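# step 3/5: fold
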Amino acid sequence: MPEITPELVLQLREMTNAGFLQCKTALVEAGGDLQKAVEVLRKRGQATAAKVAAREAKDGLIAQHILPGARAGILVEVNCNTDFVARNDQFKAFCDEVARTLLANPQADLEPARTALVAKLGENIQIRRHQKFELPPGQPGMIAAYIHHGGKVGVLVEVGATQEATLARDEFKQLVKDITLQVAAGNPGAVSREQVPTEVLEKEKEIAAAQFKNKPPQALARIVEGKLEKFYQTYCLLDQGFVKKNSEVSVKEHLAEVAKALGDQVTIRRFVRFQVGEGVA
């Protein structure tokens, strides 16, 4: 068997980022063969991944990547067990790699990289979810993302126009940025009233009616209508108070003002907002 020199161990470390003793042990098992030693470490990584998989992964980071030209973008959530690992540079780099890779190829196999990182960091790391937006050919618009609160909240939006020239205007770029901030802060559930799911709307009506069930029918109808109006102002992005103007105008009103200045029709087409750990039991 070839001598296991410090140089050989360091070479394996550079290839795998595994610890010094792990690399030395792997080289001994592999008879000094670098490639076999890599396989040994990968197998151990998979074993480690299986061992920690039972631990809940509720912490983590949101990452994003937008392609040049802003016609496609992605938002991803990657979970781990603790905030300590969420702040680790290797974990952050993995999150960025996940975003870039899945934007280029949503079917990409990231399992080898994931299990290798589990072996290094010793936590249950999971790629929980991702959302990709892409503009159809010939449709003017912009995809933008915003990461808030140290990577704990992320937003992806698509804002459309009818003229290509609009996309280069500073007013349009600022509007798109402001919309990402609005979604992060306001946490809306839909762009407009028309997009509110029927079951959500019916539930709000039911709650409002139950609160004032002793009121006369005509009064109750007005009360429910008023309650729904307040609900829309919270749930619907366009009805929310525009945060950057201290809610003195609605997002819809600000959008119309900017569109008028641009001389174009501007539309918030869709958005998605991820918050680390939301919905995890």
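# step 4/5: annotate
The chain has ten helices and six strands.
# step 5/5: archive (pending)
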